[in-house]
Amino acid sequence: MEAETKKALDAGINLPLMEEFYTIQGEGYYSGHAAYFIRLGGCDVGCHWCDVKESWNATLHPLTKVEDIIERASKIAKLAVITGGEPLMYNLDYLTAELKRKGMQTNIETSGAYELSGDFDWICLSPKKAKLPVQSVYDAANELKVIIYNKHDFIFAEEQAAKVNKNALLLLQTEWGKRTEMMPLIIEYVKQNPKWKISLQTHKFLDIP
């Protein structure tokens, strides 16, 4: 990578953009809200059930000027969701500062595997066993969203709930391919452990891109 290119990447002025789109947030606390998704390429967490594995290799996604992304987002949306991939692999200070300068709310969806950068109004922490969150993200998370793929994930969820700050919302969400098998278990678990709530991938039920 050329020195100037690396400098712009390190500063977060250019970022590897996989895709950007205006849609309805389907998951978590902000489910149902109109949002502009900014999906960055690059992830080394490697969940075997990931539904966007094409995001993992950052080199497949063009380095894009953040100012261009912000210009497009701010024309049509008030809420931006930064996701990936794993967006915290990058310096997000410039991106979030400029989004806020345009009057936009900034949300992030992250595994928490890297230290926080950027100024976020809402942090959705979705921890993964392969690479656990760092403490700063546990401390700052507004919601803890644990994906339930098998029965052991309920144990993992409780382990993560013990680490996150006391004000974080606690959400359980079935992995989409396991919803028929795991949803009845999640329902019963939440009934027995009402500190948890159920998060649904409503955009998939409604067939919203």
From TrEMBL:
The keyword rRNA processing does not apply. S-adenosyl-L-methionine binds at W49, C50, D51, G85, S126, P127, K128. Pathway: Purine metabolism; 7-cyano-7-deazaguanine biosynthesis. Binds 1 S-adenosyl-L-methionine per subunit. Binds 1 [4Fe-4S] cluster. The cluster is coordinated with 3 cysteines and an exchangeable S-adenosyl-L-methionine. It is an enzyme of class 4 (lyase). Its EC number is 4.3.99.3. The keyword Membrane does not apply. It holds the Pfam family Radical_SAM. [4Fe-4S] cluster binds at C43, C47, C50. GO terms for biological process: tRNA queuosine(34) biosynthetic process. Residues 30-209 form the Radical SAM core domain. GO terms for molecular function: 4 iron, 4 sulfur cluster binding; carbon-nitrogen lyase activity; magnesium ion binding; S-adenosyl-L-methionine binding. PROSITE patterns: RADICAL_SAM. Its cofactor is S-adenosyl-L-methionine; [4Fe-4S] cluster; Mg(2+). Substrate binds at I24, Q25, G26, R39, T83, P209. InterPro entries: 7-CO-7-deazaguanine_synth-like (IPR024924), Aldolase_TIM (IPR013785), rSAM (IPR007197), rSAM_sf (IPR058240). It catalyses: 6-carboxy-5,6,7,8-tetrahydropterin + H(+) = 7-carboxy-7-carbaguanine + NH4(+). Keywords: 4Fe-4S, Iron, Iron-sulfur, Lyase, Magnesium, Metal-binding, Queuosine biosynthesis, S-adenosyl-L-methionine. Catalyzes the complex heterocyclic radical-mediated conversion of 6-carboxy-5,6,7,8-tetrahydropterin (CPH4) to 7-carboxy-7-deazaguanine (CDG), a step common to the biosynthetic pathways of all 7-deazapurine-containing compounds. Homodimer. Belongs to the radical SAM superfamily. 7-carboxy-7-deazaguanine synthase family. This is 7-carboxy-7-deazaguanine synthase.
